[in-house]
Write a structure and sequence with these properties.
Helices cover about 65% and strands about 10% of the residues. The chain is mainly alpha-helical and about 120 residues long.
């Protein structure tokens, strides 16, 4: 059974201010679901992402622009992972095209698209 957290519960669990969670949502760092009454609901996945953001900011001193960039890289890496597993089972040409596109996006995200 999935566990869900309202914003007050999430803030308390993470030892963060609810306003910080709202700010992270405004910046697109997290995307909590909404109830019919428009209340924010955080899943375990969102809570894990928030813990990661908190570690980047508090422990490593990374600013929010850096956090956004790192999360973009992590999102691309998460999309690449199943492609690698799939490569053992599918046609290599289609997979190679998809992986190449994901890697191109990763380099764009890092600002390295001009590197060879």
């Amino acid at each position: 059974m999935a566990e869900f957290f309202l914003i007050s519960m999430a803030a308390e669990t993470l030892q963060m201010h609810p306003q910080t969670l709202r700010k992270y949502e405004r910046l697109g760092l997290v995307r909590p679901r909404r109830t019919g009454g428009a209340m924010r609901v955080y899943t375990e996945e969102e809570m894990a992402r928030l813990r990661f953001i908190k570690m980047l900011v508090e422990d490593l001193g990374i600013n929010l622009a850096g956090v956004q960039r790192l999360l973009s890289v992590a999102d691309v890496a998460h999309r690449i992972r199943p492609l690698v597993a799939e490569s053992r089972q599918r046609s290599q040409s289609d997979l190679a095209r998809r992986m190449s596109a994901e890697l191109d996006e990763l380099f764009r995200t890092l600002g390295l698209q001009d590197w060879q």
